[in-house]
Amino acid sequence: MSQTNTPPRLELRGITKRYPAVVANDGVSLVVAPGEIHAVLGENGAGKSTLMKIIYGAVKPDAGEVFFNGEPHLAKNPRESRALGISMVFQHFSLFETLSVAENIWLGLDQSMSLEQVREQIAATASKFGLPLEADRPVHTLSVGERQRVEIMRSLMTHPKLLILDEPTSVLTPQAVEKLFDTLRQLAATGCSILYISHKLDEIRSLCTNCTVLRGGKVTGTVDPRNESNASLSRLMIGAEPPALQHRDATLGDVALSVRDLSLTSEATFGTDLHHVTLDVRGGEIVGIAGVSGNGQQELLAALSGESVRAPRGSVLLFGNDIATKNPQARRAGGLHFIPEERLGRGAVPMHSLAMNGLLTRASDLVKSSFISWVSPSRNAMLARDVISRFNVKAGGSDAAAKSLSGGNLQKYIVGREISVAPKVLIVSQPTWGVDVGAAAQIRGELLKLRDNGCAVLVVSEELDELFELCDRLHVIAKGKLSPSIATREASVELIGEWMSGLWEKVV
Amino acid sequence: MNEFALLLAATLNAGTVLAIAALGLLINEKAGIVNLGAEGIMLCAAIAGFAAVVHTGNDWVGFLAGAGAGALLASIFGVLVIWLNTNQYATGLALSLFGVGFSAFAGVKYVQEKLPERPNFAIPLLSDIPLVGTAIFKQHPIVYFTVLLAVGIVWFLYRTRSGLVLRSVGESPESAHALGYPVRRIRLLAVVVGGALCGVAGAYLSIIYTPLWVEGMVAGKGWIALALTTFATWRPARVLLGAYLFGGVTMLQFALQSRGVEISEQLLSMLPYVATIVVLALISRNPAWIRVNMPASLGRPFYPNA
Amino acid sequence: MDEWVVGEGRVISLEARPAQSNFWSIASPLLALAITVVIGALIFAAMGKDPIRGLGVFFWEPIKSTYALSELAVKATPLILIALGLAVCFRSNVWNIGAEGQYLIGALFGGGVALTADANTGGWIVVAILVAGVIGGMLWAGLVALLRDRFNANEILVSLMLVYVATYLLTYMVYGPWKDPQGFNFPQSKTFEKATQIPRLIDGLRMNIGLIIALASAALLWVFLFRTFRGYQLQVGGIAPAAARYAGFSSRGALWTALLISGGAAGLAGALEVAGPIGQLTPYVPAGYGFAAIIVAFVGRLHPVGIVFAAILMSMFYIGGELAQSRLGMPKSLTGVFQGLLLFALLACDTLVAYRLRVRT
Question: What is the CATH number of the domain that holds B217?
């Protein structure tokens, strides 16, 4: 390398990391130039997160070398990495709910400053990058977007030379995404390199100037995303183009699930109260609820599933019957089934076998009812085997513990368990969250099939693409209020994005 | 000294044991660790401290021995809970059961021992104030140390960066880890300091308060101290206040007896325990309030690589 | 992953297993026992006693004769019963650590019924005594459930505080209302009538039908836990509360069921004890069975079969401690040391169920 060339900001050579069950990274190499916005693209489980943790010093690679500004990078922990100028914004925020913004930022900085100086710095950085923040507000009072601003502010105040962002837009409205991109471009212009981890093709094409694609822990290509199409990137990422879904016209049935002016205070410590939520779902349609997480989705879903029975009488109706105070078993008996977003620990008991997990929601088919309700291991196993084969679940048989399955396969099992009773109403939260592309396509296909057969389906998701692909009508939830619905074919991403900030009231 | 002054003095004395232990447990819990082994630690520290004073004749060596025993036992607990991720409740319970057995085993030789009479620790001038003076200013130095300790803990937790780090670990160990703080070492340190303070409390019990060694002499004070952190909604000043209140309840039975109240001694002895249950129920009645004040990760294991 | 460098470039690390090890879930208690035995031998050696003889007192003497075995059964009976109940609690994530108190109230209620007997009372009184014991235990545990359910009060602290209250209640009764008038002012009740004596299994041995009840309870518990829907619901609530809520299993129901079962079992054990081996109420009824049973429950893996074996082991510690005192002049409290050590060792060894040790160079 000649003297005049500046060394790359970051260079990885042959990084390999093995875990007991999987090789997360297999000979990964990549180069990031100073001031470059470099995407790392790959679907769930492709090894992106492991790679970032290695760069950030949180995980040690089994083989390979990392160079930072041309020097071997030997940071043993995130603290040392930060000292070198590497900073990271996490997918799941690393904030402390009860502490103030300033305290949160202070904890992410290294010793030298006093809390007072941190407050001044926050004000200075805020005006420089257009990131308004109140230093003394406790974090639990902030919206998700504001929290991300705290994370980014924390990174900026360490004056990073390399900023790593892990799926930063999954929690943002489309408008907030644009604002974030402005900030990142501004930052890159000052010479800071940015590693941008995502599986969203459009975003990468509009933001990044270079892109390394991972599949199964290996690099499948390094390309300039501005010259690529979604199809070509997707071929690199999953080896094929995403399967297209068939969306047929179905006959609309009667109102199956109906929510009438539901207002409810949250039980969670920092939860969101629901205000006058009204909603109808008919047989033969899929209704979607979009929104940034933390806007009342959990509270609404709990009131619909029966996990919470505090809803006022008459506010939740199933085929005209008041179920607001009925428990989940009674609701299932009436034909309403629910698939929660957490699979391990809520949708399934991690330590229990798939056979035993059938008892969670299918007891009415599995338990011999008499004075004592007997459990029959053979019947449990039969149901599990049936779901495994019908829904193509990869598992070590009906005795496999739920936690031994991959995210996608466990979701297929749970979806299969609920779908195979032929529910009249199905409520699904984040149907494909953290699931690989193949399984996601299969699950979406199953939901459409269910709708075609006359089931009323309600999908709550943060993924707009998914909602636009699946739903006939869309609502948006913001600050515990639900927007009116709009037919999907009349909606646009921009409109839904505006509604996600609670702005539908002006229009309607 | 009149009766009131005596009662006040005795209350401070009894409250001191609870206060030191509860402040130690508060430090544990602020870092997210519940140590149900407090009772066992206090017992082992009580015999360690007592034995040390018997052999050396020096109270301070006794306190040091108590603190050391507490720190040692707490560090075993800490390694199991923090590094091997054993269940906090079960491990603390194991420590308590072990402590009961071990202290009895180690203390057999000391059951008949008596400690020498000591001069009292009057603070000049102040102790001459009538009534209150004799009660408040003629106590063992540890009694005053306890108040300073509470002030120090308030300052540490809410005025220093290290205190903020400790609280953040208890709030969300995952986030603290992501920021690069050595969560497990911080938790261990908190556990060891908490254990040492429980040790001092146990030693105070056998060296100053009783001063005797009797099998099982802690008699549930470790558990009451655990309850105190909840009563106080994890605030040091309220811990101190609660401890003195409970010290008062303990003393009430003696006061009632000396006044010739016709209640059996056994029924009066239940008082502190019944009071603990009643106060616990009253304070906990509002789950939301407890949740807001409780360190969010309390009792949960932390897996740095999950 | 945790790593410890042990010199010469070797590194020991803990690696999560993909699935729990079945081998280690059985081997871990055995390894824990081995560790306890080794430490025990060291204690004997340190106190200048022959370790072989010392260990013999604990592990051979209690099983070497029919009489010894009968005594072992007498001790194991309450431990099995209480630990079975605690297993239900712990599996439901209800931390009842006050079984000692429930045991005492069971003894007090059973004893109260026994004191009503006179020379003409029939054998049916035994049934009444046992039923009273169960009711007493349930009442005391029900108090814990009530305070948890209605007032959100921590069941660990409440159940433990109630042990002290129960102890003072017992001493109050034997110092006061129930003191034997002909007892030379000793704090104890009169000796129960013969009719109240729990039927013995073999003449001349103290072992009684309590043992049969305990073993039958173990079988019943197995059926309850692994073959009934109610048992399944309790356990889901214990290991995955969110899943239980999702399924619609009542957590309040689980709390009450678990506490009433364990309170009832402990109360039954208490009644069996006072109407069996003890035969009267004295301040010495509390023998720590309620606490030892916590160890039994954990060492027995919260499994009915494991609990029976663990209870036998723990009884050996009890008898061994008494023998160590009389034969070797060692403090009886050695029992408690061994019990605590065993639980500690078990918790540490249990790491191997979920993790494996790797040595790399």
Answer: 1.10.3470.10
* B121 within domain boundaries: no
Is B172 in contact with A103 (Cβ distance < 8 A)? no
CA pair distance A177, A182, nearest whole angstrom: 9
User: C233: closest CA among C254, C260, C262?
Assistant: C254
Residue pLDDT, tens place only, B149-194: 999 999 999 999 999 999 999 999 999 988 889 999 999 999 999 9
Closest-CA residue of A relative to B163 is: A107
Q: Nearest CA to CA, how far is C270 from chain A (Å)?
A: 29
Question: Which of chain B's residues have a Cβ under 8 Å away from the Cβ of A107?
Answer: 164-165, 168, 176, 179, 181
Cα dihedral C226, C230, C232, C234 sign: negative
pLDDT of residue A1: 41
The DSSP code sequence of A78-111 is: HHHHHHHTEEEE-SS----TTSBHHHHHHHTS-T
Q: C279 CB contacts (<8 Å, ≥6 apart)?
A: C191, C192, C197
Contact flag B273-C162 (C-beta cutoff 8 Å): yes
Model confidence pLDDT, tens digit, residues A298-350 = 999 999 999 999 999 999 999 999 999 999 999 999 999 999 999 999 999 99
CB-based contact A48:A42 (threshold 8 Å) = yes
- In-domain check, residue B303: no
In contact, C342 and C299? CB cutoff 8 Å: yes
- pTM, to two decimals: 0.91
Smallest CA–CA distance from A339 into chain C, residue? C246
CA distance C76 to C207: 10
pLDDT of amino acid A488: 92
Looking at residue A2, what is its pLDDT? 41
Structure tokens at A389: 């084969």
The answer to whether position B20 is within a domain reads yes
pLDDT for position B246: 92
For A472-495, the pLDDT digits (tens) are: 999 999 999 999 999 999 999 889
Determine the residue among A49, A87, A98 to mutate to test chain B binding: the one whose Cβ has the most chain B Cβ atoms within 10 Å. Answer: A98
Which of these, B238, B231, B241, B239, lies nearest to B289 by C-alpha position?
A: B231
Q: Looking at the domain assignment, is residue B300 inside a domain?
A: no
Q: What are phi and psi of A197, to 5 degrees?
A: -95, 130
End-to-end CA distance of chain A: 63
How high is the ipTM of this complex?
0.91
Closest to C349 in 3D by CA, of B80, A351, B36:
B80
A97/B164 Cβ within 8 A: no
DSSP-assigned beta bridge partners for residue B109: none
pLDDT of residue C170: 96
Looking at per-residue pLDDT, the higher value among C349 and A130 belongs to: C349
Q: Picking from A75-84, A234-243, B132-141, which range would have the lowest pLDDT averaged per residue? A: B132-141
Going C184 to C190 to C194 to C197, the CA torsion angle's sign is negative
A96-138: per-residue pLDDT in tens?
988 999 999 999 887 678 888 999 989 988 888 877 888 899 9
- Structure letter (DSSP) for residue C94: -
Q: Which class does domain C2-20+28-360 fall in?
A: mainly alpha
> Which residues constitute the domain of residue B69?
3-114+130-293
Contact A125, A109 (CB under 8 A): no
Nearest to C156 among B36, B264, B290 (CB): B36
What residue ranges define each of the domains in chain A, with the CATH number in brackets? 10-238 (3.40.50.300), 244-335+423-508 (3.40.50.300), 352-420 (no CATH)
The number of folded domains in chain B is 1
